[in-house]
Specification:
CATH topology of the largest domain: Helix Hairpins
Number of helices: 4
Order of helices and strands: HHHEEHE
Number of strands: 3
CATH architecture of the largest domain: Orthogonal Bundle
Strand order of the largest sheet: 2-1-3
Shape: rod-shaped
Bound molecules: zinc ion
Number of domains: 2
Largest sheet: 3 strands, mixed
Structural class: mainly alpha
Mean pLDDT: 95
CATH class of the largest domain: Mainly Alpha
Oligomer: single chain
Helix content: over 70%
Length: about 240
């Protein structure tokens, strides 16, 4: 086997170990993003529901105080009826009392409607807040698990990466880059065995000329179909 191909094969073994150690850890950032977005969405939902409830409470208090003010005004207007000097003033005051009463009734209706709505707003605010808090606790658990996984495996990964650097040592840079590209794009099989003149990476037949070159062990031979770097197990 060509010396560089042997080195690449050894490197691939180490890379497979690194890949298996980091595979699930590599997925963590995307998973964290997804969960964080979901949590933020729930938080926005809870905040919106709380704001709706708060506004309804403020509006309700506003209706109450405006309604009380109207009652006071009606009392005063009724008192004025006793001291008016002529009929025109009397009629005007009666008219004003009717007008204020009408406003007050409207305020009371609005207040009642708000009170009815508020039951629903309260329920929504409570359930959305609970959903947010539950998800937050799940998310915190996820972060703790992820951190634990990272720290537990940090030593192992560090050791595997050091081995990787050592295994890559002495491989010509161009060939190493080619290998790394293939490792990524060819499903972690950049260096593939040949059996009975078939590339075991893509199962296409290779030429007899390439088989001969492989047997000779003096050239780096690629599969004409998948471009993987080839070797014959016993050559
Ligand atoms: Zn192939």
């Amino acid at each position: 086997m060509h010396e560089h191909v042997q080195k690449l094969l050894d490197l691939q073994r180490v890379d497979l170990v690194v890949s298996s150690l980091t595979k699930d850890i590599d997925l963590l950032p995307a998973e964290e993003d997804k969960r964080r977005r979901r949590l933020e969405q729930l938080e926005r939902g809870a905040n919106t529901a709380a704001a709706v409830l708060q506004k309804a409470e403020i509006d309700s208090r506003g209706c109450d105080s405006a309604s009380r003010a109207a009652d006071e005004q009606i009392t005063k207007l009724n008192e004025r009826l006793n001291v008016v000097r002529n009929n025109a003033e009397y009629q005007a005051t009666l008219f004003e009392i009717e007008s204020v009463k009408k406003d007050r009734d409207q305020l009371q209706d609005d207040g009642l409607e708000l009170l009815e709505q508020m039951e629903g707003f309260k329920a929504t605010a409570t359930t959305t807040q609970q959903a947010f808090e539950e998800e937050r606790s799940v998310f915190e658990g996820f972060l703790a698990e992820a951190e634990k996984m990272r720290s537990e495996r940090a030593d192992e990964i560090g050791a595997a990466r050091a081995k990787r650097d050592a295994a890559a040592d002495g491989i010509p840079p161009d060939l190493l880059r080619e290998y790394e590209g293939l490792y990524k794009t060819r499903d972690r099989l950049a260096v593939a065995p040949v059996e009975d003149a078939f590339c075991q990476g893509c199962y296409n037949k290779i030429t007899m000329n390439d088989v001969a070159r492989l047997m000779g062990g003096s050239a780096v031979v690629r599969c004409g179909s998948c471009q993987r770097i080839l070797y014959i197990a016993n050559a």
